[in-house]
């Protein structure tokens, strides 16, 4: 799945299915994908939960190489190796990433498990 489709379509749909958990979450996460794509996730913000671009006042920034993000989306990424080789890195409040992983929990999706590996 392409980053724009994930962040601007799939992620808001997931939030709408987990409304209560989304509304009780708080914090801003910026995801940088490759050299040019950035998306801001505002947990608990129903007016604009996701936007294109980077919010400079974010609580957490997560950086993915393009290949690492694609691997995360399709389930082929070895998260431990990607973190060790700095294909994925973060700056800021890592607890927010755990909160996002909790929101993404779904019995039919392995995405939460892959995000959980990144935090472990």
Commentary on this structure:
The protein is of the alpha+beta class and 120 residues long. It has one domain (3-119): Nonspecific Lipid-transfer Protein, Chain A (2-Layer Sandwich), CATH 3.30.1050.10. Helix content is 45%, strand content 22%. The protein contains 6 helices and 5 strands; from the N terminus they run ααββββααβαα. Strands 3-2-1-4-5 form a 5-stranded mixed beta sheet. A hairpin with a 3-residue loop joins strand 1 and strand 2 (37-43). Helix 5 packs antiparallel against helix 6 (111-119). The protein is globular and about 35 Å long. The mean pLDDT is 86.
Write down the Rg.
Answer: 13 Å
Uncertain runs are none
- CATH 2nd-level architecture: 2-Layer Sandwich
The general outline is globular
Task: Indicate the CATH class.
Answer: Alpha Beta
SSE string, helix = H, strand = E? HHEEEEHHEHH
Report how far apart the termini are: 24 Å
- Give the rounded overall mean pLDDT: 86
Q: Total number of helical segments?
A: 6
- What fraction of residues sit in β-strands? 15-25%
The major beta sheet can be summarized as: 5 strands, mixed
What's the CATH superfamily, by name? SCP2 sterol-binding domain
Number of strands: 5
Assembly classification: single chain
The residue fraction in helices comes out at: 40-55%
The computed structural class is alpha+beta
Strand order of the largest sheet: 3-2-1-4-5
């Amino acid at each position: 799945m392409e980053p724009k489709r994930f962040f601007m379509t799939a992620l808001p749909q997931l939030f709408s299915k987990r409304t209560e958990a989304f509304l009780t979450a708080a914090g801003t996460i910026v995801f940088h994908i490759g050299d040019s794509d950035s998306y801001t996730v505002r947990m608990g913000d129903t007016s604009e939960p996701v936007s294109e671009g980077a919010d400079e006042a974010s609580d957490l920034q997560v950086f993915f190489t393009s290949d690492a993000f694609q691997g995360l989306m399709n389930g082929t990424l070895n998260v431990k190796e990607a973190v060790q080789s700095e294909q994925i890195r973060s700056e800021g409040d890592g607890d927010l990433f755990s909160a996002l992983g909790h929101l993404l929990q779904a019995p039919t999706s392995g995405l939460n498990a892959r995000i959980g590996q990144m935090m472990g």
